[in-house]
Each structure stands twice: as structure tokens, then as C-alpha cells.
């Protein structure tokens, strides 16, 4: 269950620092510009997980796709192949190594995560307290504090540059931190609907959560 939730955590902290200056617009303005008019997104990503002692526990990479309303897909390529597909109603986790599939209600799995406004289009303030924490390391930073007391996370940090989301860092209630770095970002690409349709291999075990 913990591994499943970790895989569903959203988005990125860069592992190599960018030295170019931040845009003159504020962090909140960059976030608003990023969200306004966005219907789809595609990006490569690197993900790292730090334990409560801030030691590296896991690292992975792959490609991320998002289509509003309500759909996304993570294709993990390293260190192991896995897929996570949100089809608008459910989230499917495919693990080829274990030959199994896990499925969970999308609304409950994404409760208190940035995915709620990224794929749904709700105002950020509906689900989070939003704090502009200014410029650092060449990025404009925003802190999101979930309003839902049952959220798996206590804070989310978003980093923007040139009105694009470049990093995300999520801290859960156990003190574990999940960081993402996005690159090769494409905003509003044309994505095939089949990307968000899950078909379970007949011989894979199914676990409903």
C-alpha cells in the first residue's frame, strides 16, 4: 500500500541547479499562468524518495502524460517497468515483475494531492492554503498546505521557471519526501485517448483497494 501511494505522488525537484534568473513575475502568477489554458501535458521525469532521515531510499525515471479532465499516466522505465493509469474513475497500477494489477478509486487516491487541481481544474485554493515563498536557486516557489486533515501529505512545494512547473517536493505524514524533476516538457500536446485506457493482462492477479 505504501509503495502504491508513493508511486502516485506528484511531481519534482531538480537534481542539478539552474543558474538563470527567475522571471520577474511572482511565484503565484507563474503558477496561474501554468494552469490557465492547460489541457494536456507530457514530460520526462526523475523521481527520488527520501526517508524521514533524509537518506535516499529510491530513485526512478520515466515519462508522464496528463489530459484534462481527470486523466494521467506514469510510465516508469527504470529501475523497473511499471505503469500507473488514471482513467477518470480509477487508478490502475501495473507491475510486470510481479504480474499483478492494483486498482483504487481515483477520488480517494488523489485526496489532498496536487493532482486534484492539475487534472481537475479546480481552483488551487479550494484544496490548499497557498503561500508564495519567493525566489530561490533560479526558481519561483509556491508552498501548498492541504486543507483536508485526512491528506497523506503535510506540504507540497512547487518550483516554476518561465511559467512551467519544473520541480515538485511532497512531504507525507511519516516525514518521507518525494521529489520530482521534469524535463522535455510539452504543454498542450495532442495525446492519444488510448494512453488513458487500461487493459489488464488476463493472467495478472488483480487487487482492489
Automatic annotation (TrEMBL):
Keywords for this protein: Chaperone, Periplasm, Protein transport, Signal, Transport
Family: Belongs to the LolA family.
Protein name: Outer-membrane lipoprotein carrier protein
Compartments where found: Periplasm
Higher taxonomy: Bacteria, Pseudomonadati, Pseudomonadota, Gammaproteobacteria, Chromatiales
Subunit field text: Monomer.
PANTHER family per record: OUTER-MEMBRANE LIPOPROTEIN CARRIER PROTEIN (PTHR35869:SF1)
Protein role: Participates in the translocation of lipoproteins from the inner membrane to the outer membrane. Only forms a complex with a lipoprotein if the residue after the N-terminal Cys is not an aspartate (The Asp acts as a targeting signal to indicate that the lipoprotein should stay in the inner membrane).
Signal peptide: 1-24
GO biological process, one term: lipoprotein localization to outer membrane
InterPro entries on file: LolA/LolB/LppX (IPR029046), OM_lipoprot_carrier_LolA-like (IPR004564), OM_lipoprot_carrier_LolA_Pbac (IPR018323)
Primary site of residence: periplasm
Keyword presence, Hydrolase: no
A GO-annotated cellular component: periplasmic space
Amino acid at each position: 500500500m505504501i509503495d502504491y501511494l508513493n508511486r502516485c505522488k506528484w511531481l519534482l525537484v531538480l537534481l542539478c541547479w539552474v543558474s538563470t534568473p527567475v522571471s520577474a513575475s511572482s511565484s503565484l502568477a507563474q503558477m496561474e499562468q501554468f494552469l490557465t489554458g492547460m489541457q494536456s501535458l507530457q514530460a520526462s521525469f526523475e523521481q527520488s524518495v527520501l526517508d524521514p532521515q533524509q537518506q535516499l531510499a529510491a530513485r526512478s525515471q520515466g515519462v508522464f502524460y496528463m489530459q484534462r479532465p481527470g486523466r494521467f499516466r506514469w510510465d516508469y522505465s527504470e529501475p523497473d517497468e511499471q505503469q500507473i493509469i488514471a482513467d477518470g474513475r480509477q487508478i490502475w497500477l501495473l507491475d510486470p515483475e510481479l504480474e499483478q494489477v492494483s486498482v483504487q478509486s481515483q477520488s480517494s487516491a488523489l485526496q489532498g494531492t496536487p493532482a486534484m487541481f492539475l487534472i481537475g481544474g479546480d481552483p488551487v485554493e479550494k484544496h490548499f492554503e497557498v503561500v508564495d515563498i519567493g525566489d530561490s536557486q533560479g526558481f519561483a516557489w509556491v508552498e501548498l498546505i492541504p486543507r483536508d486533515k485526512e491528506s497523506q501529505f503535510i506540504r507540497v512545494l512547487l518550483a516554476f521557471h518561465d511559467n512551467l512547473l519544473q520541480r515538485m517536493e511532497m512531504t507525507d505524514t511519516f516525514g518521507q519526501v518525494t521529489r520530482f524533476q521534469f524535463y522535455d516538457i510539452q504543454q498542450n500536446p495532442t495525446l492519444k485517448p488510448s494512453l488513458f485506457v487500461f487493459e489488464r493482462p488476463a493472467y495478472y492477479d488483480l487487487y482492489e483497494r
